[in-house]
Amino acid sequence: MTPSSQRFLGIVLLASSIVLSSVGQLCMKVGMQELKQSAVALAPTWTALSALHEPLLFTVGGLLAYAISMLAWLAVLVRYPLSYAYPFLSLSYVLVYIGATHWSRLMETATPLRTAGTLLILVGVVLVSRTEGRAAI
Question: How many angstroms separate the Cα of 28 from the Cα of each of 31, 45, 72?
């Protein structure tokens, strides 16, 4: 593999880990939230079990996305120094915040303080990305 293709693969793996981790968290939240609502609203019957199908799919799908993100992260650890790569995982906080406040199944409240904190995370990631030692090993 050429150095440029190695670098591209490292970036893809890092981005995959971040995005899949975020998607996993959002899906697990939706699944568990809907499971709780369904369990409270429905009597324990076969009809109730069929109503749990979609929330269980979200939960299991979220767990699967999170597990795959961990595999991608292991591949990232082989390629980059930990002190460089690890701060990029904080981008998942940004993606989860955006998803939680804009996805109609969650619609959590976006506050000025949370938004400012999210922007600070972005500034930190930019600063870390400009440091030496970012080349793939």
Answer: 5, 24, 19
